[in-house]
């Protein structure tokens, strides 16, 4: 088993017409053992930017803290929030890898293969969101 599958996770994000949706499981486990059922995988960077992290829980928490720190430095310097594209570039630079921006949906975690099939069958271009609020994280 890969260390990246040690805690398990499921994340999916989709974009629609003037909206988006992001969802994750809340289970924190060590292989087949459940440790908690309220683990936060989706984090709010600012009012218009959410981040979903899968993988080893401690790595996800550390990465989140680094990204929040860098966003706060950006806010102090620029006196505004980061745009999602700028934040994506920051994540790419931090992870030493070029990431492509998806135009429809992304999935992550140990359940990626299953989520790809579900998203491919359900995604339609310019989908309309049927909800008007997003719960605070």
From TrEMBL:
Domain of life: Eukaryota
Keyword tags: Cytoplasm, Proteasome
Keyword Cytoplasm listed: yes
Location relative to the cell: Nucleus
GO cellular component: cytoplasm; nucleus; proteasome core complex
Pfam families: Proteasome (PF00227)
Chief location category: nucleus
Any GO BP: proteolysis involved in protein catabolic process
Self-association and partners: Component of the 20S core complex of the 26S proteasome. The 26S proteasome is composed of a core protease (CP), known as the 20S proteasome, capped at one or both ends by the 19S regulatory particle (RP/PA700). The 20S proteasome core is composed of 28 subunits that are arranged in four stacked rings, resulting in a barrel-shaped structure. The two end rings are each formed by seven alpha subunits, and the two central rings are each formed by seven beta subunits. The catalytic chamber with the active sites is on the inside of the barrel.
Protein name as catalogued: Proteasome, subunit alpha/beta
């Amino acid at each position: 088993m890969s260390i990246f599958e040690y805690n398990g996770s499921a994340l999916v994000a989709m974009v629609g017409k003037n909206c988006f949706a992001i969802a994750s499981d809340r289970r924190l486990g060590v292989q087949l053992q459940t440790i908690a059922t309220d683990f936060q995988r989706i984090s709010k960077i600012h009012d218009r930017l959410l981040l979903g992290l899968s993988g080893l829980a401690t790595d996800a928490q550390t990465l989140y803290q680094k990204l929040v720190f860098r966003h706060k430095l950006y806010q102090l310097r620029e006196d505004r929030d980061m745009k999602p594209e700028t934040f994506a570039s920051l994540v790419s630079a931090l992870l030493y890898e070029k990431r492509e921006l998806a135009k429809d949906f992304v999935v992550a975690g140990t359940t990626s293969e299953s989520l790809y099939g579900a998203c491919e069958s359900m995604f339609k271009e310019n989908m309309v969101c049927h909800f008007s609020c997003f719960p605070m994280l």
